[in-house]
Amino acid sequence: MVGPLSISFASYLKPSRTLSRWIKPIANWYADASGYRKYGFKYDDLRAFTQPVLRSQSIDQSFMKIVVEERPDVQRALERLTPREKYDRAFRLKRASQASVLHAPLPKEQWTKPEEDNRYLQPHVVEVMKEDAERQMWDTAKVKRS
Amino acid sequence: MLAARVSTAQRLARSFATVADSAGLKVAAVDRNQPTSAVTILVKAGSRFESKPGVANALKNFAFKSTAKRSALGTVRESELYGGVLSASLGREHLALTAEFLRGDEQFFVDVLSSFLTSAKYTRHEFEEYVTPLIESDAASLAADPATYALEVAHAVAFRSGLGASLFGPSHSSITAEDIKSYAKSAFTKGNIAVLGSGIDQSVLAQLVEKSLGSTPASAAASTSASSYFGGENRVEAHGGPQTVFIGFGATGAPSAELAALAAHISPQASIKWSQGISPIASSVPHGTSVQSVYLPYSDATLVGLLVQGATSADVKQAGKAAVEVLKKAAAGISAEELKKAVAKAKFSAASALESRDGLMSVLGSQVLAGAPSTLEASLAPFDKISASAFTKAAAALVKGKPTYVAVGDVTSLPYADELGL
C-alpha cells in the first residue's frame, strides 16, 4: 500500500451492521486512548503530520521517502482547504507543538471532542488521488475507434 | 453550369437560417457542405447581464471544466482524440461556447457543450487552480493592448452600466466560485439559449439538443434596462504601448445601416495592403500613425468612432484633428459618389462577415435569440435602401450627441477632446 492514506478496513466493516456494532465501541475507545485528542489534534492532522514519524519506527527506511505530507498529491489537497480550515489546522499544529514543549497535554477544555474530530482533509486527498488516477488512465489509454 | 448555380443559390437561401424550436430551445443550422462541423451554444450571458463585475469573464473561463459527466482533463483528452477544438468567447451580449469537429462526431461534442450548461460543478479548487490564472491572463492581455483598453473605457464612458460593463475582470476581484455558479444558474435557462450549427444537418442537431438540453429549466430570457448613451471624456495613464485615442459617438436603438455606412466612409483603410486609401483621413495622417474606424453594433445601441494610434502624442494629435474634421464634414453631408462607395464598402464587410463561420454565428445568433431570423437577402437589403438624406440625418444626429473621448498612454501630452475640435 503506497498511498497517502493509511490502510483502512472501514469500507468493509461499515456495510455490515453486526460487525460495525461490535467494532465501533472499540474503535472509539482506541481513538480516544491514542491520545492525540488531548493535544487538540484532529485525526486528519495526524495522518499528515505525526503518523509518518510513528510509521518510520516500524516500517522499513524506503517508506520514509513517501512520508505522507511530503507528497505532491497531499500538498495539492492541503491547498484545497478553505482559508478557515487552513488557519485552524495551523493553529492546532502550533498549539500542540507548544504543549509538547511543556511536556503536558492541553487543559481538558481544549481537548478535541469526538464530534469535532471530522475528516476535513480526507475527501480532498481522495479527490486528488482520483484525478491522478484518471490522468494516468488517459496517459496510458489505448484508443480504438469503431 | 447555370443550372448548377441556380441550385446552389436556392440551397443557400433555404439553408441560411432554418430555425426550429426544439423542446423550447431555438436551434438553427446552416449546411454548406464543409468538411468540418461547428456547433455554437449562444447564451445571453454577456457582460451586460453580469451580477458582479467580472463574473461573465469568470464564467467564460470556467467553460469545459469538470461536469457531472466528465472531468476537465477528460474533456481535454477526449476532444483531442476526436480531433476537435473547443472554445469559449465572451461578448457584451452573448457568451458563445463553440465546438469545431469533423463531420460525424456531433454526438460527443454536443454532449460536451450541453453538459457544461446542465451539470458543471464550479468547484472552488478548479476556480483557484485553473480559472483564476485565466482571468488574470485576460486582464494582463488587456493591460498590454491599449486599443482594446481604450474601447473598454469608451464603453464605460458611453453607456456607463449595462453595455458599459467590462468584458474583463477587475484587477482585484472578490468573485467566488459560488458567485459564478449562481450567475450560471440564472443565465442557463431555455429562453436564453440558442444552438447554432454549421456544417451539420438541422434535424440531427435538433434531436441531439433536445436529448441533452431538454431538461434545462425554462424561464424568461434575461433582460436589462435599455441602453442609454451618455458620452464623456476619460484619460488613462499607460506605458509601453502606442499612444492611443478613441473618438466616438453613440446612438441608441437598433443599429442602422446608415451608421455602418458612415463607419465605412470614415475608414481610412485601403483595399490593398501598403497602399494609401482614398479616404479623406488617409492623406492627412502622419506616417506611422494608424487610424481605424470602429463600428460596434449591439441589440439596442451602436458605438461608432475612430481609433487613432501613433508613436508620439504630436502625431496622434495631428491624426485626431484630421479624423474629427472628416467626421464633422461627413455629418454635414457627403457627395453621391462618396455615399455609393461607403455603402459598397459597408455592404461588402457585412456580407463577407456572413461568409465566415464566426461572423455567421454572431449575426445569426443574435437574430435567432431575438426570435426573428432573416434571410441572407434581408440582412443585406437595408444597405441598398440607404439614401443621401437618410445618411446625412443619421450622421448629423450621431455627431450632435456628446462625444465619447478616451486617451490611453502619456496623459500629460495626449490631446484633450476640445483640442481636437470635438
List the helices and strands and how they pair.
The complex is a heterodimer of chains A (146) and B (422).
Chain A: H1 10-13, H2 17-33, H3 43-47, H4 51-58, H5 72-79, H6 83-101, H7 122-139
Chain B: H1 2-15, E1 18-22, E2 25-30, E3 36-43, H2 55-61, H3 72-82, E4 85-90, E5 95-102, H4 106-119, H5 124-143, H6 146-159, H7 177-187, E6 193-198, H8 202-213, E7 232-237, E8 243-252, H9 257-266, H10 280-284, E9 290-297, E10 301-310, H11 313-331, H12 336-355, H13 357-370, H14 376-384, H15 388-400, E11 404-409
Parallel strand pairs in B: 2-6, 7-11
Antiparallel strand pairs in B: 1-2, 3-5, 3-6, 4-5, 8-10, 8-11, 9-10
Helix pairs in contact in B: 2-7, 4-8, 9-12, 9-15, 11-15, 12-13, 12-14
Task: Report on this structure.
Chain A has seven helices and no strands. Chain A is an all-alpha fold. Chain A has a single domain (10-122), classed as Cytochrome Bc1 Complex, Chain F, CATH 1.10.1090. In chain A, α5 packs across α7 (122-139). Chain A is flat. By secondary structure, chain B is of the alpha+beta class. Chain B has two domains: 16-213, 2-Layer Sandwich (Cytochrome Bc1 Complex, Chain A, domain 1); 232-420, Cytochrome Bc1 Complex, Chain A, domain 1, CATH 3.30.830.10. Helix content of chain B is 46%, strand content 19%. Chain B is built from 15 helices and eleven strands. Chain B has helices spanning 2-15, 55-61, 72-82, 106-119, 124-143, 146-159, 177-187, 202-213, 257-266, 280-284, 313-331, 336-355, 357-370, 376-384, 388-400; strands at 18-22, 25-30, 36-43, 85-90, 95-102, 193-198, 232-237, 243-252, 290-297, 301-310, 404-409. In chain B, the strands form two sheets. Chain B has a six-stranded mixed sheet, sandwiched between helices. A five-stranded mixed sheet of chain B has the order 7-11-8-10-9, sandwiched between helices. In chain B, β9 and β10 (301-310) form a beta hairpin. Chain B is globular, with a radius of gyration of 23 Å. In chain B, 45% of the residues are buried. The chains are: A mainly alpha (146), B alpha+beta (422). The interface between A and B is small, with 11 and 9 residues. Chain A: Keywords: Electron transport, Membrane, Mitochondrion, Mitochondrion inner membrane, Respiratory chain, Transport.
